[in-house]
Amino acid sequence: MKCQLDDAQQYYIHVIVTGIVEQTGMLNAISELIHHPNYHCKHSLWDFSNASAGLNIKDLRKIVRILHLFKPRSKNFANKVALVIPGHMHQAMANIFVSIATLLPFKYKVFKSNEAALKFLIPPGN
């Protein structure tokens, strides 16, 4: 799994994931994103369009447990996370992740395209 962060957008950090998505790679990518200097003021768009799922339910639960350790600096932080996942099977796994992550301070949503995800991340009129 490879991950690239693109911070060129005004409202979000674009996380481009390629290869086979696995637990260690995801935890490293999450850590890199959380430590990004603009993380607290920009939402996140995780683009899995060119990736294949290699995670199982146990992996998803461990990722959620680790994300529970994250404490935002303030109540008003950029907490929207768009997950772009084109395949139905992969979307099902992403929706399971979203359902077990409901207690986290993030608003996760699964999309089939970047265009749909941007409507969620970017405020109307911008």
Summarize, please:
This protein has helices at 23-34, 57-67, 88-100, 114-121, and strands spanning 2-6, 12-21, 43-53, 80-84, 107-111. By secondary structure, the chain is α/β, with parallel strands linked by helices. The model has no long low-confidence stretch (mean pLDDT 92).
Give the secondary structure arrangement, pairings included.
Elements (H helix, E strand, L loop, with lengths): L1 E5 L5 E10 L1 H12 L8 E11 L3 H11 L12 E5 L3 H13 L6 E5 L2 H8 L5
Parallel strand pairs: 2-3, 3-4, 4-5
Antiparallel strand pairs: 1-2
Q: Can you walk me through this structure?
A:
The chain is an alpha/beta fold and 126 residues long. The chain has one domain (2-121): STAS domain (Transcription Regulator spoIIAA), CATH 3.30.750. Helices cover 35% and strands 29% of the residues. The chain has four helices and five strands, in the order E-E-H-E-H-E-H-E-H. It has helices spanning 23-34, 57-67, 88-100, 114-121, and strands spanning 2-6, 12-21, 43-53, 80-84, 107-111. Strands 1-2-3-4-5 form a five-stranded mixed beta sheet, with helices on both faces. Strand 2 (12-21), helix 1 and strand 3 form a beta-alpha-beta unit. The longest helix has 13 residues, at 88-100. The radius of gyration is 13 Å and the shape is globular.
